[in-house]
Write a structure and sequence with these properties.
12% strand, Lyase 2-enoyl-coa Hydratase, Chain  A, domain 2, enoyl-CoA hydratase activity, ClpP/crotonase-like_dom_sf, 10 helices, alpha/beta
Length: 222
C-alpha cells in the first residue's frame, strides 16, 4: 500500500460482525514465556507504527468491539468512525497489563492527557457516542441492520478525500504528524519544507488553472 501510487485512502474494517478488533488472544499469550511476550508486543508496536506511517489518509471503521490492541489499531489510523453501539477501551489494566502497542502515546495525543490517564487507569469501555463526545472518534452513526454503518460512513468520508490533490494530502498528513512532535517554530519549518515539495507539482498548476477557468480540477497525483 505504501508504494502503490493508485491508493488514495485506506479504510480498515472487520469482516467479523460486531467486532472491529478484540485485541490480543490472551489464551495464546498465556502460553508464551516472558521473552516471547516482549517480542510479540514489540512486533505489534512496529506494525502499528507502520500503519501510522502510511503516506495516505487512513480511516478506521469501528462497527463493534475495539478493545486493547484493537483500539490501538484504530488509534494508529488518522481518522476514526464508530457505530454508536461500538465498544472501545484500552482494557489492559483489567488483565494485569498496560497498553503496549502505542496506546499510552496515541490516546493522550488524541483525547488529552487527563482523559487518557483516566481511561487507561480504569480500563473503562466507552460506546460510540461517548467516544465522539471526547474526541476519540471523528464521527458516530447509528448501527444499521447489516452491522456496517461505520464502514459506510467511512466510505463517505473517504469519497470526500478522493477528489483532492493526492500529493498535497500526503504532504498535509506528513506536516501534521511531524509537526505535532516538535515545538511550533520547528513545526512551521516542517510545514515550509512540505509546502516547498508541493510547489513544483503538476497538480498545483492544475488547481490554479481550474480556479481561473471556473471548472473542477482533475488531479493526477503528480
Amino acid at each position: 500500500l505504501r508504494f502503490d501510487e493508485k491508493v488514495r485512502v485506506v479504510v480498515f474494517k472487520s469482516e467479523v460482525k460486531g467486532v472491529f478488533c478484540a485485541g490480543a488472544d490472551l489464551k495464546e499469550r498465556a502460553k508464551m514465556d516472558d521473552a516471547e511476550v516482549g517480542h510479540f508486543v514489540k512486533r505489534l508496536r512496529n506494525l502499528m507504527d507502520e500503519i501510522a506511517a502510511l503516506p495516505v489518509p487512513t480511516i478506521a471503521a469501528i462497527d463493534g468491539y475495539a478493545l486493547g490492541g484493537g483500539l490501538e489499531l484504530a488509534l494508529a489510523c488518522d481518522l476514526r468512525v464508530a457505530a454508536s453501539s461500538a465498544k472501545m477501551g484500552l482494557i489492559e489494566t483489567t488483565r494485569g497489563l498496560l497498553p503496549g502497542a502505542g496506546g499510552t502515546q496515541r490516546l493522550p495525543r488524541c483525547v488529552g492527557i487527563g482523559l487518557a490517564k483516566e481511561l487507561i487507569f480504569t480500563g473503562r469501555q466507552v460506546d460510540g457516542q461517548q467516544a465522539f463526545s471526547m474526541g476519540l472518534v471523528n464521527h458516530t452513526v447509528p448501527q444499521n441492520s447489516d452491522g456496517d454503518a461505520a464502514y459506510q460512513r467511512a466510505l463517505t468520508l473517504a469519497k470526500e478525500i478522493l477528489p483532492q490533490a493526492p500529493f498535497a494530502v500526503k504532504m498535509g498528513k506528513l506536516a501534521i504528524n511531524r509537526g505535532m512532535e516538535v515545538d511550533i517554530a520547528s513545526g512551521m519549518a516542517i510545514e515550509g519544507m512540505c509546502y516547498a515539495q508541493n510547489i513544483p507539482t503538476r497538480d498545483r498548476q492544475e488547481g490554479m488553472a481550474a480556479f481561473r477557468e471556473k471548472r473542477p480540477p482533475q488531479f493526477i497525483g503528480k
